[in-house]
């Protein structure tokens, strides 16, 4: 939830208010953050160097300055939760595929070694690397200590970001990246794989044998770290991430979700088929599969494996995990676009979706929380409401529903 700061700290007193809050920030660093960092082995010199000249970044989202309260945003900043068609813009997919093939050739030996060690296919590593940082070509310019300091001091998830700030100080203490090399995204994610600091401490790997896990400048370390993350989150070697499928009208979109899995052969027996016309591989047919319809009946559909949800652990978005798997397949197998185009869905205000979610909750549906994001629980709850009211289930929020779901 994002606070609109113009209304909160506007007017003649804004500069004075900000100066007072900056002073509170400095006190918070010394009274709250330093004791936690010291207990984790961070030296006074590392701490001083990290915050030398650092001030609050008032342009970040999700800020709740002292004396204000959070408000539900109208718009969603993260592309992963926006319009599917925009997330899969042809130019973005083609560019990620083209550069990914170059990287597959350049780093073939490293990718092969990592796959042997972890079971994670090189194409999947490349898909994540491309999405997170354009294979290291997208500039990452934020000062991680300023970002995490700001968010730890005044955001809707202050405790979480405070812990991440301390983890970032531990990384600096260990010397994995010198000085100002520790840059991050606006959300505090680090380096080419875009690890949050705690994920770095748990999963970053030394891929080039120099004794450090430098995910900012080392491509080998980046590749090894991504694969190590997926391996430790349960990647099942030998299984795919999923398959694009055709879902007949006789199969309800309300069957979507990781809690409604069944053997893939059972989905096939219900009439679900691969769009390629090929049968599901026998070893996959025996395994667990899950229906995924990220735009409801308004876009492509998939049967995904448990590995899809390992990808989703990397970034909690269906569209993100789908992008990674799709680009990886294009890199290795030369696959084209999805057979079904994305419909004109998404783009509603988050506040509108949240209102629909609250209405569904009032009817007893589990939407996964009224956060304004159309996740699988919201999608299938809409479908169940549609079926209960005699409508065809389409399983995605649309503007026309605002009048009745309120």
Overview of the molecule:
It is a single chain. With 406 residues, the protein is mainly alpha-helical. Among the domains are: 5-75 and 141-190, Helicase, Ruva Protein, domain 3; 350-403, no CATH class. 47% of the residues lie in helices and 5% in strands. The protein has helices at 5-8, 14-39, 44-51, 84-87, 90-106, 108-118, 122-133, 144-153, 158-174, 197-203, 219-232, 264-269, 282-286, 306-314, 318-333, 350-362, 376-388, and strands at residues 142-143, 183-184, 242-246, 262-263, 273-274, 288-292, 301-304. Helix 7 (122-133) packs across helix 15. The protein is globular and about 65 Å long. The two termini are 20 Å apart. Residues 1-8 and 76-80 have low confidence and may be disordered. It holds the Pfam family SLT_2. This is Transglycosylase SLT domain-containing protein. InterPro entries: Lysozyme-like_dom_sf, MltB-like, MltB_2, PGBD-like_sf, SLT_2.
């Amino acid at each position: 939830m994002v606070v609109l700061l113009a209304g909160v700290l506007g007017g003649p007193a804004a500069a004075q208010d900000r100066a007072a809050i900056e002073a509170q920030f400095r006190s918070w660093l010394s009274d709250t953050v330093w004791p936690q960092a010291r207990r984790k082995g961070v030296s006074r010199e590392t701490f001083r160097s990290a915050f030398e000249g650092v001030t609050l970044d008032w342009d970040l989202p999700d800020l709740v300055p002292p004396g204000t309260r959070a408000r539900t945003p109208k718009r969603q900043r993260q592309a992963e939760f926006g319009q599917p068609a925009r997330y899969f813009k042809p130019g973005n997919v083609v560019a990620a595929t083209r550069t990914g093939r170059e990287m597959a050739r350049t780093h073939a030996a490293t990718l092969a070694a990592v796959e042997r060690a972890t079971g994670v296919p090189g194409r999947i590593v490349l898909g994540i690397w491309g999405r997170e940082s354009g294979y290291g070509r997208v500039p990452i310019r934020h000062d991680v200590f300023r970002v995490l300091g700001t968010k730890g001091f005044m955001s809707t998830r202050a405790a979480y970001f405070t812990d991440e700030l301390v983890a970032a100080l531990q990384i600096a203490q260990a010397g994995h990246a010198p000085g100002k090399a520790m840059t991050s995204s606006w959300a505090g994610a680090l380096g080419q794989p875009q690890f949050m600091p705690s994920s770095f401490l748990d999963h970053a790997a030394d891929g080039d044998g120099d004794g450090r896990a430098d995910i900012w400048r080392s491509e080998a370390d980046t590749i090894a770290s991504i694969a190590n993350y997926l391996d430790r989150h349960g990647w099942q070697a030998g299984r795919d991430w999923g398959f694009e499928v055709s879902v007949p009208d006789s199969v309800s979109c309300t069957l979507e979700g990781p809690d409604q899995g069944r053997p893939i052969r059972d989905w096939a027996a219900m009439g679900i088929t691969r769009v390629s016309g090929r049968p599901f591989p026998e070893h996959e047919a025996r395994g667990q599969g899950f229906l995924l319809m990220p735009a409801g009946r308004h876009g492509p559909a998939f049967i995904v494996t448990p590995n899809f949800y390992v990808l989703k652990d990397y970034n909690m978005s269906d569209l993100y995990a789908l992008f990674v798997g799709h680009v990886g397949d294009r890199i290795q197998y030369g696959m084209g676009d999805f057979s079904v185009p994305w419909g004109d869905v998404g783009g509603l205000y988050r506040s509108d979706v949240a209102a629909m979610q609250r209405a569904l909750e009032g009817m007893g549906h589990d939407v996964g929380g009224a956060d304004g994001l159309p996740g699988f629980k919201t999608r299938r709850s809409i479908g169940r409401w549609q079926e209960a009211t005699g409508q065809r289930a389409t399983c995605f929020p649309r503007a026309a529903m605002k009048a009745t779901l309120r």
